[in-house]
Amino acid sequence: MSAFFENLGITIIVDVGKQLVLAIPRAIQNWRFRRFFGSDAVTGDRIFGVLDPVTHPLLPQNNRYVKLFGGRRQDQPLVGPTNVLGICSVRVASYASALFGRFRPSHKPLAFVIDYDVDVKWDASFICFGSSDSNLKTFDIESLSQQKFYSIAFDSSGKRVFRVGNREFEFSEKHDYGILLRMRNPHHPEHALFVCAGLGEWGTSGAAYLLFHNWSSLYWKHGNADFCKVIRVANRSDETAEEVFSIP
Fold this sequence. Notes:
Layout: H1 2-37, E1 47-51, E2 54-55, E3 65-67, E4 76-78, E5 83-84, H2 87-100, E6 111-114, E7 125-129, H3 136-142, E8 150-154, E9 160-164, E10 167-170, E11 175-184, E12 192-198, H4 201-213, H5 215-222, E13 227-234, E14 242-247
Parallel strand pairs: 1-6, 1-7, 7-12
Antiparallel strand pairs: 2-5, 3-4, 8-9, 9-10, 11-12, 11-13, 13-14
């Protein structure tokens, strides 16, 4: 009988040891994730993905949209809602959800909001998708006195460009450019502010793709320090996203 209890004790100790071996790396990874994305990244409620709806100017009683059916049936005019999100929003939300789903409980996924809902809110971490031309929260972050990394402007020919350091980056036929910004929330330092902003939609989703697929390597390089990166992406291919310039 004593041998039985002795073996049972050894089994329990081994099982507990295995659980600890698995739990410690997970705890370290969660800690890094919170340091990078903000204090509420794993279990808290104060972290949001911020999307950028646009408003159609026609009155509600007019047809504002057309669904194209490629000749399989007649194209269908739609009244539709006044505020809509672009296809880019589907891509960035899928990238963010896939990553945060690995760290957050299933009953508390990453919350997505539209920019109007958080335009005066700062007590949280915000991951903004879209440039200041389309996302009000990006505009707010870009306008912070602490945000000295980049600006969006017009060049001498009237094209929209990102200015980062002493360089300019502009959209081309083959490539879009995006900004990936991470900075500490100056109003609530336990939280972080992120911007994934493109000159076009592929710059936005390319920056988001790089952020959510490479957050760990970004953390190893920068920790929880501020940084701003210029991302180049081939149009229609987020997987080609690559860093081409960085501050610091």
